[in-house]
Amino acid sequence: MFSDIKFNKEVPVYIQIKDYIKEMILGGMLQSGEKLPSTREMSSIMKVSRNTIIYAYEFLEDEGFICIKKGKGAFVCEIHVEMQEKWNVNWKTLINDYARASESLDIVKHEAKWKKGMISFKSIAPDENLFDVEEFKKAFLNRMSIEGEKILNYGYAQGYRPLINYLLKYMKNKGVNIRGKDILITNGFTEGFDIILSSLTNTNDKVLCENPTHNTAIKIMKLHGLTIEGVDMDADGINIKKLQEKLEKDKFALSYFIPSYHNPTGIVMSPEKRVKLYKLLKKYNIPIIEDGFNEELRYTGAHVAPIAALCGEGNSVIYIGSFSKVLFPGIRIGWILGDENIIGYLESVKRSRNIHTSFLDQAVFYDYLQGGNFEKYIKKARKVYKEKYEFAIECAKKYISTGQVMGEGGLHIFIKIDGINARKLLDRCYDKGVIFTPGDIFYTDNKGADTFRLGFSRVNKNEIQIGFQIIGDEVSNLIRETMEEKNV
Amino acid sequence: MFSDIKFNKEVPVYIQIKDYIKEMILGGMLQSGEKLPSTREMSSIMKVSRNTIIYAYEFLEDEGFICIKKGKGAFVCEIHVEMQEKWNVNWKTLINDYARASESLDIVKHEAKWKKGMISFKSIAPDENLFDVEEFKKAFLNRMSIEGEKILNYGYAQGYRPLINYLLKYMKNKGVNIRGKDILITNGFTEGFDIILSSLTNTNDKVLCENPTHNTAIKIMKLHGLTIEGVDMDADGINIKKLQEKLEKDKFALSYFIPSYHNPTGIVMSPEKRVKLYKLLKKYNIPIIEDGFNEELRYTGAHVAPIAALCGEGNSVIYIGSFSKVLFPGIRIGWILGDENIIGYLESVKRSRNIHTSFLDQAVFYDYLQGGNFEKYIKKARKVYKEKYEFAIECAKKYISTGQVMGEGGLHIFIKIDGINARKLLDRCYDKGVIFTPGDIFYTDNKGADTFRLGFSRVNKNEIQIGFQIIGDEVSNLIRETMEEKNV
């Protein structure tokens, strides 16, 4: 007894001893009233200093596991862990429809998984090697010295005021009129969209969006019991005529669009189309939720204002912003910009969900941004991703030449090959060590079986070349086999 | 023009210049095609180095606001901010019942607000002055050097694996059998409770709890459309007989309890009562949600196991843990411990809500905890809060002697004074610069008008003395006036 303790290097020794003895007490190996070896004896059994044992005993006493009687020694307390009969609940029958749907729509759980050594085109997360960790550390230390310990205590549901002000100015610099508007900080786009739908829609409401569109948005809309009406896209984005037809026919609670480097197609909606879209929705008075996704990576030679900039002092567009596809997605910071009255309600919903987004993260992020790091970073990131994008397009044209290649930049391209089944293709490529995202998950109407998305942000040029070549070969094989089957 | 720019010290000068020119372009003061002063001219107008101007122009070009033509100069691009007609949506009519209820149940918005100079007994947040910021900084730097930039990229919905493992062991050390169980990291208790109710209840389900109980829990249950059945409490916690009566009469989907330093009463449920409660709920097969609130601050001389420890390998108790009432609430980290199958569903719900809790915060928190800082901190915190608690009890008995004082430690006490209206009392005290939480917000049945909660974690002894004296005086005044009214 006691001499079999094994120490690791990560945790202070006195804590390991404390936990070890606690475990013996809880496990019944040490009984109530039993005397522990003296600190001197224990120190020689465990081969650690006597002070370490004294320290461990002190903590054990603090936590109510032993009583130290002066001159008599340390005794195990009466511990009330009277194990009761095991009681099992059949939780599976208690899980409700919402949780079941969350699970079944959870692509992380149900799509093919990356394995070590594979080339993955699944991710459209930023390449972390571009992150400037040293500047981030500086921002942390600087902000800690300014804010001190209070930044680790509770903050406010709306967010960290300096960050809100920074983002208001940031949005103003995109051409958005911020008068009468305000910002709520959220845990990324996902929470922003979820809070908006939670607050502004009711089950069975109809929502307009592009078809295909962001898979997470589809998931959240489905979880809210909404009817999703996707509008087909042309090579330059949403088909305005089809949009108009839908608007004439039906009533919609909201509309949701991704105007820049649209997910999954990579299409940037032109300024002219943005105006047409805006005017049409205005005519039918259907509020717009604009997803600012990837806007930061845009490099077209001329500034293109978000849709939110078109309504001036009007309040009809709610903009969801996030740097997660560009910078530090792990800290989960996004924002909602909208009418200040709406933000007031969304703030209360946010408070009822999780009180607020980490104030530490918000403060450090603010410090990082306002020091000018973001501008420098984005300059570098745009250059790197642009190069990769151009190389990906080149390889796609060379190796996957039968496909229609979409995407004008950003972090991914989208491919459609008539007559091919992308899931069959994925199975084949998976065996060859290449993985990508089948396009059907982005469609609102079970279409898209012949499409797939290739994210290139976290692969290098070599991987793009090899991976695209493998995909191209398997496309050819599949097409040849289909032809042969037909001829038989 | 240009010479009226005013620089602040916080933001790099080239960014201020960039934003200033951007604003002029977006505001129409600089028109498309207009030529900007040369970098040399601008440098003399703005009184900054020419390099700064060159840098600012480069960024303006990157962002698509100006075009630099070699040998000719910098020209404003054609900017597409065609302001459209203002379009206002009447959002107030679109806000749904859930958001309206969130707002109306939001006590931050509707309860009396603290003003500078006031003595506030509202808060039961930890005293940030106890936080060991230097150790936290060390944990940050250490974890950053171990994890590097990848900790800033996307993580996993379930949480940061080392933290999950740490907490599993932590729960095991409380006597909980963790076999077949798992942990989901959440943004604090609030998110944990919300995710559980979202996944396991349906509108109009009945939920059992103590009466009074945690106000945020009541809010979340109401927002889920649940019927709340509160069971009255005695001086030593929930009345088991009344609990049994309710169980005999009705079917309940879930039950929710706060066994340690109960909010708001401060009562610790005895080990015997925990066993009785457990057995009774087992008999009726009503799963238990245990709120581990303030458990870490318990100092009774003997370890008291959480209810979750009573069911051994059974899965009938879901435990929600959080250190937020003790340590770093601003980073919003809590956890749910439960049956591993349930955790799988809750993980998908978490992913659909906000993908995951900040990985940076989880990693730093883990580093802080595993280094043994938590044990040292909690030792110090227990001592400080115990002293304050004892002083608060002393003052309550002295100055508010007509009241029944509840609370056995933790961060607050609870007072009931027959015949007094706590909101009237609050109004009076507010005028005298003292603020506290009226007790009615904790009741599930509109009772508690004669109760109030006094949090003492963030006030000093002097404030406790002065504040309690003021409350006591106003209690006496109110009672005297009521007597006089009756006599008139």
From TrEMBL, chains A, B:
Domain of life: Bacteria
Domain HTH gntR-type: 11-79
CDD domains per record: AAT_like (cd00609), WHTH_GntR (cd07377)
Keywords annotated in UniProt: DNA-binding, Pyridoxal phosphate, Transcription, Transcription regulation
InterPro entries reported for this sequence: Aminotransferase_I/II_large, HTH_trans_reg/aminotransferase, PyrdxlP-dep_Trfase, PyrdxlP-dep_Trfase_major, PyrdxlP-dep_Trfase_small, Tscrpt_reg_HTH_GntR, WH-like_DNA-bd_sf, WH_DNA-bd_sf
Parts of the chain that traverse the membrane: none
GO MF assignments: catalytic activity; DNA binding; DNA-binding transcription factor activity; pyridoxal phosphate binding
Keyword Transcription regulation: yes
Family according to the record: In the C-terminal section; belongs to the class-I pyridoxal-phosphate-dependent aminotransferase family.
Protein name: GntR family transcriptional regulator
Native source species: Clostridium drakei
